[in-house]
Amino acid sequence: MNLLDRYIGRAVVSGTFIALLVLLAIQAFFSLMSELGSVGTGHYGLAQAFEYVILTLPRTAYDLFPTSALVGSLFGLGQLAANSELVAVRAAGVSVGRIARSVLQVGLVMLIAASAMGEWVAAPAEQYALQMQALAQSNRITFKGRFGFWARDQDRFINIGQILPGGILADIHVYQFDDEHRLKLATEAKRAMYHNGDWLLENVRQSRVSADGVHVRHLHKLTWKTLISPGLLRLVMVRPQSLSARELRRYIDYLNSNGLNAGRYRLAFWMRIAAPLSGMVMLFLSIPFVFGPLRSAAMGQRLVVGVLVGVGYYLFSQMVSHLGLVYGFNAALSALTPPVVFFIGGMAVLRRVR
Fold this sequence. Notes:
62% of the residues lie in helices and 18% in strands. By secondary structure, the protein is α+β, with helices and mostly antiparallel strands.
């Protein structure tokens, strides 16, 4: 990386950092105002509200990265253009394509940093925030309303009423069927704890159905072997957007192995893959804006256009992803269509730049 790359890179990085800080401050303010409405519910106080907002900031920063990259690049390159530095660079024989390469080089570094933060910082921090919020507000987490959480494990259907602090399950019902889909065993337990790779059921009532009738037995404790682990339950407790790519892949495999619909999680997985790519596309779009239609525009105009393009990209990506989910389109196609469309649009504008 030569002197020109470093000079342009510093301008882009500093602009992106400033834009990200401003957008984060705005988002954090509105998020805090929203959380204040829940203060007083259960043990959820002002301290918990602040903790929730702080813990979700990495996820917010990850989501805002594409828009911040566009606005920041417009700001940084716009400053160079306003000081006639880009004019001098062009006069020295440097092409627009060469400048675009410098921008994308630093964009690749920011992409790697954003991806690492989203995978190893943002996802676990937000999961902890959601669990903390739920536990503070109700001291328990109930899945899927009053009917609890339903899952399938091979020939068994499992209903979990509650998950209590410490990962303890309560109100468990397990229904096991034979090859002809007839109920053969129904197990009820007051609670369950995970121990040495298996669940330990307590206060168990087990009903075995056969041609001779129904035979019931009561057990104080019973070891229960299942694919459902505390880690898997933790994945289900949070929305797909809050999971890392590794966790999404793991849960998709579980759903596929049990013949369940994994469309929502598959789309979330590919949206996570496409998010850093979107940041690169936004950076690329800043080049034709600075050298093309907004060459002589004021800085305020550039920033307004950048925000509008970022918002337009977000709305377009949300529309495509939701249409893909409703109509069953390929998840990868739904997630990658917006960055590809905007990249093609940017290339068309860049070709007109002289």
